[in-house]
Design brief:
174 residues, mainly alpha, 9 helices
């Protein structure tokens, strides 16, 4: 091995944590892009279904009439995961979806000076959406169209908030 190779080997032995941090940072950015892609796809699907009035007129689609609301829940969950991963979370698999909002709120507390009230608004919005997941996904009774519309509107506002936060905090991969 030549002298340059020896120096590089010695340098790498003394500073291995830097290489790991760099690798973790790149992986976090990739994960952020992954969750962000899902969130944007869910939002787009939700918006398309919301615009379509076929649910009202086509009886074959009645079983899917809550799809915009379910897409809204998954949109909010994916945005919350993207923010949490971008702010250092290593595990975003939650048994209760509302825990994603709590994790996001905990991570955003460090940025209250930079974000002000925005740091609290997003997690509150996410809780209001994610808290209805089981009600929407496993509807045992009829959901009111107004309720579905309200969940979709909340998800739209939350997605705008999340996009803003991702840019303001310069989250890697946003």
């Amino acid at each position: 091995m030549d002298a340059d190779g020896q120096r590089l080997k010695l340098w790498a032995r003394r500073r291995p944590f830097r290489l790991i941090l760099c690798e973790n940072g790149v992986m976090a950015a990739v994960q952020v892009q992954h969750y962000l892609g899902w969130a944007r796809d869910f939002r787009e699907g939700m918006m398309r279904l919301r615009e379509e009035e076929v649910f009202v007129f086509d009886n074959r689609l009645i079983p899917y009439r809550y799809s915009p609301a379910l897409l809204a829940v998954h949109c909010a969950m994916s945005y919350a995961n993207a923010i949490c991963v971008g702010l250092g979370s290593t595990d975003v698999s939650y048994k209760d979806h509302r825990l994603a909002a709590e994790d996001m709120e905990t991570r955003l507390k460090n940025y209250r000076g930079k974000l002000g009230d925005l740091a609290k608004q997003g997690p509150d919005q996410a809780r209001r959406i994610l808290g209805h997941k089981n009600e929407i996904a496993y509807a045992t009774s009829e959901l009111r169209p107004e309720f579905v519309s309200e969940i979709v509107q909340r998800a739209i506002r939350f997605s705008l908030w999340a996009e803003n936060i991702g840019r303001k905090l310069n989250i890697a991969g946003w």
